[in-house]
Amino acid sequence: MPTILVDKQELFTLLNNPSLNDSEMEEILFSYGLEMDEVTSERKIHEKERGSLATLDYSDDVLYRIEIPANRYDLLSTEGLSIALHSFLHLAPPPKLIPTPPKIDLYIDSAVDPIRPVCLAAILRNITFTKKSYDSFISLQDKLHTNICRHRRLASMGTHDLDTLTPPFYYTAKHPQDICFTPLNQPGDIKGTQILAHYSNDPKLKKYTHLLANHSKFPLFLDANNTVLSLPPLINSNHSKITLKTRNVFIEITAENKNRADIALNALVANFSLYCDPAFTVETVNIHRNITHTVETTPHLEPRRLTVEYECIRKKIGIDASAHAINTCMQKMMLTILSYNTTNCIVSIPPYRADILHACDVVEDVAIGLGFDNIPKKTVSFYREVKVPLMHAFADVVRHTVAMCGYLEVLSFALCSKDECGAFLMRQQQEDTRAVAISNSNTSEFEILRTSLIPGLLKTISFNREFPLPVRVFEVGDVVLLDPSTDTGTRNDKRLAAVHTGHTSGFEEIHGLLDKLMQTLNVQKSPGAFDIRKGAECMYFTGRGADIYYKDAKVGSFGILHPRVLECFGLGFVASVVEVRLAPLGHLI
C-alpha cells in the first residue's frame, strides 16, 4: 500500500487542533482504518539514506509516515487526509465541490488517438500556495502517477500557471523534428528529436521515455500562441511552471483509460480546491473533439447515488443499530443521506470517493464510522465441522513420503514459456493444444499456464548448479489444462514430479521412489492395478522411458531425460524424472 509523509504541524493546523499529541493522532488514524508507520523528520529520513553529512540542510519538523489503502486516492495528501478527518471527527460536513461555468476551451486533434486519446482538464482559480502546500501539490501528483496512473502508463497529468498562457488550448501530435521547447527546469530549448535521449539518463524521468519511444509523433499541449505547455506523459514546459506566486492553475490529464483519468483529476481538484477562493470551487473546461465534433465539460463532479438496505448493513456488521445511528456513521465517512425510510436509504457519494463501488463498500464505511471496537462480540449460532479436502490430505501424504526418501521440496512458478513445456521437452504439437495462453504477456518467460511440473524443477536445478551432486528435488502442485467440458474451459490437475540428477542417471532412484509411493498407498504391482509399460515420450532416451498405469489408465511416466532436453535447460549432468497424476490415486488414503 502507498505511504505518505504528512507534516504534523500542517495537519494539526488544518484540523484546527494544534494541541493534539502523537499518540492521540495515532489512535484517530487507527480508528479511521489507517496506520501510522513512524514519527520521523526530513533530517532523519536523509540521515538513514545518506548518512549524517547529508542532513545539514534538512528540516527537523515532525513528519508522520502514514500507510494509505491502495484505493483511497483522496487520502494521498495532507489536505485530503485533513478533509476526511474533518468529517470523521464531526468538525465539518464533507465538502461539496462546486463546478463553475467554463470560460476556456480545449481542442483535441484526432492525431493523438493512436497515442493517448483521452483528455480531461480543470482550472483552480484564486488559489494560494504556501511552501508546504506547494510541496504537497507536487507530491500528490507523484503519488497519483505511481498509483492510479500506473507509472504514467495509463494516465498522466500536467499542471500549469494559467496566467502565463493564452487560451484556447490545443491537444495535438507532431513529428519530433517539428517540436522545440524549454522543458521544466532546463536552461534552454531542446528539440523533439533529442528529448528522449536527453531524459534517458535522468534518474527520475528515464523510466517514462519508453512510453513515447515507439511513436512517430509525440503528443503536445499548445496555447493560442503555439507556446508548448507540456509533452505528455514525459515533461512539462518551463514556460508555464507553477511557483508560489501562481494564482490560477490549469490542469490537464491525458490517458489511455478514461476512468483512471477521471479519478486522478477529481482527487487533485478535491484536495487543492481547499486553497481556492471561494473554497472548493472548480472551474470547468469545454473539451472539443475535432473528429466527432462533440463537446464535453470536465471535470465530472456530479455525485453518484446508491441505495443501501439497512438490514443488509446490520446483518453484515452484526449490529442492531437504528437507521439514525447508521446514517450518522455514513456522514462521518463523507457520505450524504439524500433520503431514507425504515428499510433503506439513498446515499450521495462524492466524486472523489472512487473507492465506493457497491453497497458492501458503504457497509465497510459504516463499520469504520461506528468503530470496530464498538461492534459487539457474539457467539455464532451454528457450528460446522471443518475438514481438510481429501485431495489436500492426499497431497500431504505424498509430500511426506517423497521427503522421507531424501528429496527436497521446491515451489516453482505456475507460469512458464511455451518452449519450456513444449519444444524444450520435445513435445511441441501436443502442448500447443492443451495449454492455457496468457493474453498480451509482458514477458516471454510467462506465456502459458504450466502443463507439466518438470520444467520448473529443471529450471530450479539449473539456477542452483553450485550445489553438490546428486541433487534430488520434487514438487506437488497443480498444472492447468484446457477442458471444454468445464464452465471455465480449463481444469486443474494436481501432480507429483521429482528429479534426480548427478554423475549417474539415477534411474533406479526414480524407479525406487515410485515403488515406495505405491507401497505407501498399499497398491500392489499387477496388471489391472499398478503397472509399468513401455513408454513413447520423446523427452526420454529411447528405451529408457516408461509409462505408469493405474487400473489400465495412464497416470504418468518416468525415465532418463534426453540430452537435448538437458541442453535446453542448461544442465550438464544426466537426470531422471518422474511425473504422476494424483487425482486418480486420491481415493487410496
Which properties best describe this structure?
589 residues, seven-stranded mixed beta sheet, alpha+beta
Write the topology of this structure.
Elements: E1 3-7, H1 8-14, H2 22-31, E2 35-41, H3 42-50, E3 62-67, H4 78-88, E4 98-108, E5 118-124, H5 131-146, E6 155-161, E7 169-174, E8 180-181, E9 190-191, H6 192-199, H7 210-213, E10 218-222, E11 228-231, E12 235-236, E13 249-255, H8 258-272, E14 281-289, E15 294-298, E16 304-309, H9 310-317, H10 323-332, E17 336-340, E18 344-349, H11 359-370, H12 390-404, E19 408-409, E20 415-416, H13 418-421, H14 428-432, E21 448-449, H15 454-462, E22 471-482, E23 490-502, H16 507-520, E24 530-534, E25 540-550, E26 553-561, H17 563-568, E27 574-581
Parallel strand pairs: 4-7, 4-14, 19-22
Antiparallel strand pairs: 1-3, 2-3, 5-13, 6-13, 7-10, 8-9, 10-11, 11-12, 14-15, 16-18, 17-18, 20-21, 22-23, 23-27, 24-25, 25-26, 26-27
Describe the fold and architecture.
- By secondary structure, this protein is of the alpha+beta class.
- Helix content is 28%, strand content 28%.
- It is built from 17 helices and 27 strands.
- Helix 10 crosses helix 11.
- It is globular, with a radius of gyration of 31 Å.
**Biggest β-sheet, characterized?**
7 strands, mixed
Helix run count:
17
Please give the oligomerization state of what you see.
single chain
Termini, distance in Å?
A: 43 Å
Low-pLDDT stretches = none
Number of strands: 27
Give me the secondary-structure category.
alpha+beta
Strand content: 25-35%
Reading side by side through the largest sheet, how are the strands ordered?
A: 12-11-10-7-4-14-15
Helix content: 25-40%
Mean of pLDDT: 90
Shape: globular
What is the radius of gyration computed over CA atoms, rounded to a whole number of angstroms? Answer: 31 Å
